[in-house]
UniProtKB/TrEMBL annotation:
<dbReference type="GO" id="GO:0005085">
    <property type="term" value="F:guanyl-nucleotide exchange factor activity"/>
</dbReference>
<dbReference type="GO" id="GO:0005096">
    <property type="term" value="F:GTPase activator activity"/>
</dbReference>
<keyword id="KW-0770">Synapse</keyword>
<comment type="subunit">
    <text>Interacts with DLG4.</text>
</comment>
<feature type="domain" description="C2">
    <location>
        <begin position="404"/>
        <end position="533"/>
    </location>
</feature>
<feature type="domain" description="PH">
    <location>
        <begin position="221"/>
        <end position="379"/>
    </location>
</feature>
<dbReference type="InterPro" id="IPR001331">
    <property type="entry name" value="GDS_CDC24_CS"/>
</dbReference>
<dbReference type="Pfam" id="PF00620">
    <property type="entry name" value="RhoGAP"/>
</dbReference>
<dbReference type="InterPro" id="IPR035892">
    <property type="entry name" value="C2_domain_sf"/>
</dbReference>
<dbReference type="GO" id="GO:0035556">
    <property type="term" value="P:intracellular signal transduction"/>
</dbReference>
<dbReference type="Pfam" id="PF00621">
    <property type="entry name" value="RhoGEF"/>
</dbReference>
<dbReference type="InterPro" id="IPR000198">
    <property type="entry name" value="RhoGAP_dom"/>
</dbReference>
<feature type="domain" description="Rho-GAP">
    <location>
        <begin position="567"/>
        <end position="765"/>
    </location>
</feature>
<keyword id="KW-0966">Cell projection</keyword>
<dbReference type="GO" id="GO:0016020">
    <property type="term" value="C:membrane"/>
</dbReference>
<dbReference type="GO" id="GO:0030424">
    <property type="term" value="C:axon"/>
</dbReference>
<dbReference type="InterPro" id="IPR001849">
    <property type="entry name" value="PH_domain"/>
</dbReference>
Length: 779
């Protein structure tokens, strides 16, 4: 435990020095606010006052006191951090700071009036407007920038922001302070006071089947129903959509009092006789879909996984049912957010009489299921109609009894005994297909479900002009709690007029689709298992095998010291006399030359046999490497680079630092996090660091082309994170209690680490080595 305690104290220093730097910035911001106060007061008593004394009092209320409190705190804490000694105590300083929160309470109570007064004064007084638009904040002592200019409104918000910040820091400090340290109870006390204070002010600040017959007298039946996300007036809404014999009805569940039975509210309906699907050309002027950035979705998945592990712990320790209920509720809210915000494939419905509606789906498979179900009903002779309000009421009333999908598809709605799905890697070989009536350009995509909805994970190449495509391509698909695999077969559209009008519009025609259940018992064999999916007359042959998480990561240290795969990076760079291994430079160069605009580069798997061929050539250091690279499918080159990092005997960011990366990324305070994450890079061996920085710059360049290649920083972090960072054998052994939970949570954190560096302003090797503290100015 001696080393652990030492590490905890080291983390304390990183957290504190980060916090001090942001405290310095905060004091400078308060100073900038106070600067105009004196001259304003001086003019207030003259014949030409800019503001009255009353107005000055209101706008600058309590700023001077807050400034003094923090200046004193900073001056006492600074020397302690600079002359660091592991026995240093500073809990009393934080406790004192917390005890002075009453001043903040007064500030918060006055905050709205202060803002309104400042706003009114600057409208009526040009001089004051000039002053309040640009207040000069001086930069930190060691930064290049001498000043930044900030508006008064932004500065007045800083104290409110600061309380939240110091609460985060207390939280981080406690996490890294041993419980028997004299500071521990003091910090706990300070945290309790701050949290109570925060919850008291947050309230003040935040403004923040057969009911009816068809016109022909047939019984109207429910054909299909399910939850879809509708984009309505610019915001995403979860709807329950009902498809009846002759009408599509979009409803939402009404909030009802306890005990009352639930009711649906009809948002709109379209008789199928009037319903058309706009073609891509027509949808050009449709509203653009606002796509939520991937990193926000991944952050949320990370939160969900963390809550899952927490719930498992509570259950294992026979925890209180109240705590479990609370976690369940939180889990539901987070999963609901994910369900609402992840779909991005547009599904448009148009009513001939004028109105258009837009749903967003996460899977093309589901979109085509809805489309086909509607088109099948439209083959019948349908009549247009208008429902009277009574008919509509009866029809909507019947929805509740008739519905087949009862629960929103989130995991928190599943029963405990339902299969949690598979976590690990599914290897799929798509062999061939037959049964096409005429020859076409054909390809397949694979979808699996994760977090309750389906997403597309792999895509074969297009086999040109054939009725019997032979793809024989192997893919490795990562499963996060998956239960089904879907295969879709498309005809590629090369017609220029139809191509990608809308960013996510898929214009290729679906020739067939099918799905199979992934049965954990059947799949978990070492051997390939061959299967056929039949879809409207087409048969697709494929094989698959599954490796669970803990199996797939047994890194086999290579006995051979020749070659590059599985050899330590330091050995390779020394042998080549290079800073970055040749294989990394060559693959990166080739991807930048001709793969940077390839849709899904690094996400879409290359053909396994191609990758093996490239691996052999690099290992043999063959003269023909360059010729082979220039001819090879670009996804195979991207795959070779990923394989190289995956087969390193030790992950690029090292086993030793893995626990520290996990701790650093979990810090809540931005300045502490920045300090810690830079410190960790500095601690890497040179070959690892230089190669990592080289890869980082490359991935940033790939993401710049996101509008074309659809690969955001986030997508790239998801692909590379788990490859560059993994717990060592010993680490994962210790935790194999619930592999899936630990894993999904760990993988999320690995993605976050890489994303952190990808989103960070450029990091240079020399500056990193020179600088012991590293700050961006406004923290």
């Amino acid at each position: 435990g001696e080393r652990e305690a030492g590490k905890g104290l080291e983390m304390r220093k990183l957290v504190l020095s980060g916090f001090l730097a942001s405290e310095e910035i905060y004091i400078n911001q308060l100073e900038a606010l106070l600067l105009p106060m004196k001259p304003l007061k001086a003019t207030a008593t003259t014949s030409q006052p800019v503001l009255t004394l009353q107005q000055i009092e209101t706008i600058f209320y309590k700023i001077q006191d807050i400034y003094e409190i923090h200046k004193e705190f900073y001056d006492s804490l600074c020397p302690k951090v600079q002359q660091w000694d592991s026995n240093v105590t500073m809990g009393h300083l934080f406790q004192k700071l917390a005890s002075q929160l009453g001043v903040y309470k007064a500030f918060v109570d006055n905050y709205k009036i202060a803002l309104e007064t400042a706003e009114k004064c600057s409208q009526s007084n040009y001089q004051f407007q000039k002053i309040s638009e640009e207040l000069k904040v001086k930069g930190p002592k060691d930064s290049k920038e001498s000043h930044t200019s900030v508006t008064m409104e932004a500065l007045l918000y800083k104290p409110i922001d600061r309380v939240t910040r110091s609460t985060l820091v207390l939280h981080d400090l406690l996490k890294h302070t041993p419980a028997d340290h004299p500071d521990y109870p003091l910090l706990q006390d300070a945290l309790r006071i701050s949290q109570n204070f925060l919850s008291s002010i947050n309230e003040d600040i935040d403004p923040r089947r057969t009911a009816v017959t068809t016109p022909k007298g047939e019984t109207r039946q429910l054909v299909k129903d399910g939850f879809l996300v509708e984009l309505s007036e610019g915001s995403r809404k979860l709807r329950h959509v009902f498809l009846f014999t002759d009408v599509l009805l979009c409803a939402k569940l009404k909030k009802t009092a306890v005990g009352k039975h639930q009711q649906y509210d009809c948002k709109w309906y379209v008789p199928l006789a009037d319903l058309v699907f706009p073609s891509p050309e027509e949808s050009e002027h449709c509203p653009q879909v606002h796509v939520i950035p991937d990193h926000e979705l991944e952050d949320m998945k990370m939160k969900i996984s963390a809550i899952k592990s927490e719930m498992q712990k509570e259950k294992a320790n026979k925890g209180q049912s109240r705590a479990i209920e609370r976690l369940k509720k939180k889990m539901f809210e987070n999963e609901f957010w994910l369900l609402l915000n992840s779909p991005a494939i547009p599904f448009r419905i148009h009513n001939r009489n004028g109105k258009s509606y837009l749903f967003l789906l996460s899977s093309d498979y589901e979109r085509s299921e809805w489309r086909e179900a509607i088109q099948k009903l439209q083959k019948k002779d349908l009549q247009a109609f208008v429902l009277s309000s009574v008919e509509l009421q009866v029809l909507t009333g019947s929805c509740f009894k008739l519905r087949t999908v009862h629960n929103i598809p989130v995991t928190s709605n599943k029963d405990d005994d339902e299969s949690p799905g598979l976590y690990g890697f599914l290897h799929v070989i798509v062999h061939s297909a037959k049964g096409f009536k005429q020859s076409a350009n054909l390809y397949c995509t694979l979808e699996v479900d994760s977090f309750g909805y389906f997403v597309s994970k792999a895509k074969t190449r297009v086999f040109r002009d054939t009725t019997e495509p032979q793809w024989n391509e192997e893919f490795e698909i990562e499963l996060e709690g998956s239960q089904s695999l879907r295969i879709l077969c498309y005809e590629k559209c090369y017609d220029k007029t139809k191509l990608n009008k809308d960013n996510n519009e898929i214009v290729d025609k679906i020739m067939g689709k099918g799905q199979i259940q992934l049965d954990p018992q059947a799949v978990q064999t070492k051997n390939w298992h061959m299967d056929v999916i039949e879809m409207n007359g087409i048969k697709v042959e494929f094989s698959m095998k599954f490796t669970s998480r803990d199996m797939s990561l047994k890194r086999t240290p290579s006995k051979k010291q020749t070659g590059v795969f599985g050899v330590k990076i330091s050995v390779v760079t020394k042998r080549e006399r290079s800073k970055v291994p040749y294989i990394v430079r060559q693959c990166v160069e080739e991807v930048e030359k001709r793969g940077i605009e390839e849709v899904g580069i690094y996400r879409i798997s290359g053909v396994a046999t191609d990758i093996q061929a490239l691996k052999a050539v690099f290992d043999a250091n063959n003269k023909d490497i360059l010729v082979m690279l220039s001819d090879m499918d670009i996804n195979a080159i991207a795959g070779t680079l990923k394989l190289y990092f995956r087969e390193l005997p030790e992950p690029l960011l090292t086993d030793r630092l893995y626990p520290a990366f996990m701790e650093g990324i979990a810090l809540s305070d931005p300045a502490a996090k920045e300090n810690c994450m830079m410190h960790l890079l500095r601690s890497l061996p040179d070959p690892n660091l230089i190669t990592f920085l080289f890869l980082l710059e490359h991935l940033k360049r790939v993401a710049e082309k996101e509008p074309i290649n659809k690969m955001s920083l986030h997508n790239l972090a998801t692909v590379f994170g788990p490859t560059l960072l993994r717990p060592s054998e010993g680490e994962s052994k210790a935790h194999l209690t619930l592999a899936s939970d630990i894993w999904s949570h760990d993988v999320m954190a690995q993605v976050q680490v890489l994303l952190y560096y990808l989103q960070h302003p450029p990091i240079s090797f020399t500056e990193l080595k020179r600088n012991t503290l590293y700050f961006s100015t406004d923290v």
